[in-house]
Write a structure and sequence with these properties.
Strand content: 35-45%
Largest sheet: 5 strands, antiparallel
Distance between the termini: 23 Å
Number of strands: 5
Shape: globular
Number of domains: 1
Amino acid sequence: MIFNDVFVNKKYRFSVGIEEASGRFYVSIPVSNGMVDYEEYYGIDVASYELFQKDPEAALVFVMKCRRRELDDLLIVKLGTNRGTAI
């Protein structure tokens, strides 16, 4: 999988992009598990993709749900047992 960030919001620590092989849109957040820092990628629809780029504030509710693990069903890459914590 090749994740291509199209928009990065440093203030709220998330990015919006396209996974190149599948064409899926995503929001990613940084995560750490004590051994490694990585990103979790959550699938979104085209309307959210366009909205989150134009209005980053609109993405905050979605991003906060991701950080609280409330949208795990949208994870593009399923995670193992040593899952990290959002940073």
